[in-house]
Specification:
- With 354 residues, this protein is an alpha/beta fold.
- The chain folds into two domains: 92 residues, Arc Repressor Mutant, subunit A (Orthogonal Bundle); 249 residues, Vaccinia Virus protein VP39 (Rossmann fold, 3-Layer(aba) Sandwich).
- The protein is 50% helix and 16% strand.
- α12 packs across α14.
- The longest helix is centred in the N-terminal third of the chain and has 29 residues.
- The radius of gyration is 22 Å and the shape is globular.
Length: 354
């Protein structure tokens, strides 16, 4: 064994302590979201833990003091040792209290908990090579996934991603037919429908509980008169004649993405567009050795690859497939034109045409 470099060892242990501190924060942060403690700090200004406990609805002061100190130690909230008051900076509020912020991360913490819940199933699958059916990993994985993606969708679909496509926004404004495949709980579908009232939208997903929730969201938003949600796999959709087909963060989860691409080509109008939104990634693993790649590779290990391997073919693209692989998948379906239309910190948008 090579001699241990003490400086490197201490640096590595320091990194591990930071990582473990983040992991230990998952349950306390989730409690903070559910009990609206971050909201109370945002709305009430600097306050002691006793004042925070009272403002948040008469919670137990001793628990709230320990909770607040834990968040302050992690840098999630601020603490003034002179006044013993806690507060939330505008930057921290963007992550913990501003629900329409593109950086609101409540769903991310719920996803982390879902991955822990699904640990035994994924571990067993690593031994057998089998998959884990979507929805079986954790009790409400699909709820957490929807909450995780919603802030990014709310701040990008209408504002950036659709405008990046050639002529699509104008079509939607005039009235077009849209299929949102792999729609989950329907946030992406409804955001588009709200922005383009003359167009017709159908959301498809193979997970029935997600579709049930999507239908509730449509009713709650008063959009169920022109937005439908149907249970179907991507390859079994019987409707056609779509002007736009969207895949939001789902192509890499599909067992047979090439078969899905072929079917998309069949149900898309000749002059139609296929928009594929996927996690940002380089084409080589070495390109993804960064904080974003770390998040996506871990999520992919626990969620995306097991989901794909549970389905027919089981290609298992993973969440860091990269543009080159994804473009090859799209072209295999009969699309001759594929380009990257937009790039963000967490996603890339591919535009495909016949």
């Amino acid at each position: 064994m090579e001699q241990v470099d003490e400086n490197k060892l201490h640096a590595f242990v320091g990194k591990m302590l930071g990582d473990l501190g983040g992991a230990y924060s998952v349950p306390t942060v989730r409690i903070g979201f559910r009990l609206e403690l971050f909201d109370a700090l945002k709305d009430g200004g600097p306050m002691t833990s006793d004042e925070l406990a009272e403002r948040a609805g008469g919670l137990a002061p001793r628990y709230i003091r320990e909770w607040a100190l834990a968040q302050a130690a992690g840098g999630y909230i601020d603490y003034d040792p002179e006044t013993e008051q806690f507060s939330l900076s505008p930057e921290q509020a963007m992550v913990f209290a501003e629900r329409d912020s593109p950086f609101y991360l409540a769903g991310a913490f719920d996803l982390a908990a879902a991955m822990i819940e699904g640990e035994p199933k994924v571990e067993n699958s690593m031994k057998t090579g089998t998959g884990v059916r979507w929805g079986d990993t954790a009790e409400c994985l699909f709820c957490a996934t929807g909450a995780f993606f919603r802030p990014g969708y709310a701040n990008n679909i209408v504002q950036n991603w659709i405008p990046s496509l050639d002529g699509v926004a104008a079509k939607l404004e005039d009235g077009a037919r849209v299929a949102d495949i792999g729609c989950g709980v329907g946030f992406s579908t409804l955001l588009m429908a709200e922005a383009f009232p003359k167009s017709e939208f159908v959301g498809f997903d193979f997970h029935e509980p997600s579709i049930e929730q999507a239908r509730r969201h449509a009713r709650d938003h008063g959009l169920d008169d022109r937005v439908r949600f149907e249970v179907s796999t991507a390859k079994e959709i019987e409707e056609d004649g779509f002007d736009l087909i969207t895949f939001y963060d789902c192509l890499h989860d599909m067992g047979d993405p090439r078969g899905c691409a072929r079917h998309v080509r069949e149900i898309l109008r000749e002059d139609g567009t296929w928009m594929i939104v996927e996690p940002i990634a380089g084409d080589r693993p070495s390109d993804n050795m960064n904080p974003i790649g770390r998040l996506y590779y871990n999520a992919s290990t626990m969620l995306c690859v097991p989901t794909s391997l549970d389905q027919e073919v089981g290609e298992g693209l993973g969440a860091q497939a990269g543009e080159a692989v994804l473009s090859d998948v799209v072209r295999s379906g009969g699309f001759s034109q594929v380009r990257r239309a937009a790039t963000g910190p967490f996603n890339m948008v591919l535009e495909a045409r016949a």
